[in-house]
Amino acid sequence: MELQKLRYFYAVAKFQHMTKAAEYISIAQPALSQAIKSLENELQVELFVKKGRNIVLTEYGLYLKERLETILPEIDSIPAEIDKMKKRVSKTVKLNILAASAFVINAIVEYRKNHPDAVFDFEQNEQRTDCDIVISTNGLTHSSLVPSVNRCVKTERIYLAVPKNSSYSPMESIELRDVRDEEFVMLSNARLFGVICNEFCSKAGFYPKILFESDSPTAVQNIISTGTGVAFWPEYSWGELNNDNVVLLPVKTPVCSRELIIELYETLPRSEYAEDFYNFLLQQISDNE
Amino acid sequence: MELQKLRYFYAVAKFQHMTKAAEYISIAQPALSQAIKSLENELQVELFVKKGRNIVLTEYGLYLKERLETILPEIDSIPAEIDKMKKRVSKTVKLNILAASAFVINAIVEYRKNHPDAVFDFEQNEQRTDCDIVISTNGLTHSSLVPSVNRCVKTERIYLAVPKNSSYSPMESIELRDVRDEEFVMLSNARLFGVICNEFCSKAGFYPKILFESDSPTAVQNIISTGTGVAFWPEYSWGELNNDNVVLLPVKTPVCSRELIIELYETLPRSEYAEDFYNFLLQQISDNE
DNA sequence: AATACCGAAGTTTTTGCAATTCCATAGTAG
DNA sequence: CTACTATGGAATTGCAAAAACTTCGGTATT
């Protein structure tokens, strides 16, 4: 019961005519006769009977034809579907964003304005290695099996966000130890960022009092803007800060920054937009400076 | 996209392991590798990727596997279904009953008491030629393409049915012309039988007055039994007459009879019960005598 | 005479196997 | 902790068997 024979059979069943069917599928007529006979042999059933010098379907042949009526289109749709998938996949950029997710999300939104057919597969997974673009930081040990084809290390300054109505807001910059008694808002799930910030504080000689641990930069903004606390705010990672009630102050000492590592990989299948989006990301960072 | 390759692929997809799959489907591992590669080539897509020293499905492979999950069982069910059909068909006796249908129906009911799995395909169609058993009469021109393997011609006497309360009922037999003024009940749809009966009357020198034309022997019985008419009643064709209000009289002149021709054919596929039922039919006629 | 299916012989393509190679992991010793 | 070795597992190559096609000729139907 090979598929080809079933297709042959189906053609003959439709034409009810060997020669025409053979012509249709572009093989010699004896080959077709043989194929049908071998199929009949396999099923141990007559599929056609001679009627005059033509042939007609038997009860069994009719049944087989009806079954094939649904099965063959089903099978034929597979290559087409896979082709569609291929197209979609080639337009997909696989991202592994271990840091600076909000920044990348903004970049994606911006990028799609000019490339509306681009698709982004966005993950945060230290294990995953088969991505086009990985963004990590100096605290992370993301080890890919293959070397990146391009790699950019960007120093990201980390500001102190203070409420506008606080006494700090008019300052140009600040010493971190000056806010040692303030209450801090920290990101809970961005643990790595939390670790770094704690290190800053310990360099400044204090251990921060935690007012609130939140999941989202937005929540951090909201809490700061109530005037009840301060927070560290990374230059790029959380996107632009556009809240009139919060002010970002550079920290004089200690040096508050971290390294953003943006890597481009050659994946298979080749992603059409990967390299272009990589360059777009770097440009976005430059524009922010 | 041959079915075999798809099956091979499916095995590999299930095992996620070439060698094990090759063992499972009983071919050598290189053959399997080649088959998969050729499938990948046809679809222009990688179906597996190496992971360490094993292989795992790609996105495309996963999709193909899921599709096959429904398609393969669908195809595999076909031979089984055809086998079932074959069994059923072999137990079917194809009848073409151009005369004596009631008689045959009784025989079928009787026969199935001893052969409950026998199936009867009962038709009345002068065109149809691929039947196991054909019953016709001397007035019919049923011409099959092949000669019958067995043939039995039986003379069927045709009685005159009269009401029990009529003056004819005590007689042993009757001259047809004696009932020339009676009103007749004729079968309308059994046109051939009607023709014969009209011939009998014309031989007897009269044209019968028609009281009623009916479709069913039962209706004929009912009408006769009201005492309002007489009718011709074939010896076998309409089954036994068991009605206390009607009496069957042999007709002395003209000779009232017709020939029942019962033929057995060799059909393909071979019907298991055809010959046996043929003999049963003949025996039923003998028993009636 | 024309149409249409079937059969036989020869050729090409596909499929399968065996031996081998290549690669990645795991184990082991210095 | 590095390096050498063993092992598991897939890919490559070369060759044999089987399947599928083609051409040519045959036979039956109209």
Chain-wise SSE layout:
The structure is a homodimer of 289-residue chains.
Chain A: H1 3-15, H2 18-24, H3 29-43, E1 48-51, E2 54-57, H4 59-90, E3 92-97, H5 101-114, E4 119-123, E5 133-137, E6 150-163, E7 183-187, H6 191-203, E8 209-214, H7 217-225, E9 231-234, E10 246-249, E11 257-264, H8 274-288
Parallel strand pairs in A: 3-4, 3-5, 7-8
Antiparallel strand pairs in A: 1-2, 5-11, 6-9, 6-10, 6-11
Chain B binds a DNA duplex (30 and 30 nucleotides) through helix 3.
Describe this structure in words.
- The structure is a homodimer of 289-residue chains.
- Chain A has 289 residues and is an alpha/beta fold.
- Chain A folds into 2 domains: 3-82, Winged helix-like DNA-binding domain superfamily/Winged helix DNA-binding domain (Arc Repressor Mutant, subunit A, Orthogonal Bundle); 93-288, D-Maltodextrin-Binding Protein, domain 2 (3-Layer(aba) Sandwich).
- The first copy, chain A, is built from 8 helices and 11 strands.
- Chain A has helices at 3-15, 18-24, 29-43, 59-90, 101-114, 191-203, 217-225, 274-288; strands spanning 48-51, 54-57, 92-97, 119-123, 133-137, 150-163, 183-187, 209-214, 231-234, 246-249, 257-264.
- In chain A, the strands form 3 sheets. In chain A, strands 3, 4, 5, 6, 9, 10 and 11 form a 7-stranded mixed β-sheet that branches. A two-stranded antiparallel ribbon of chain A has the order 1-2.
- In chain A, helix 5 links the parallel strand 3 and strand 4 (119-123).
- Chain A is rod-shaped.
- Chain B binds a DNA duplex (30 and 30 nucleotides) through residues 2, 4, 17-19, 27-35, 37-38, 50, 52-55.
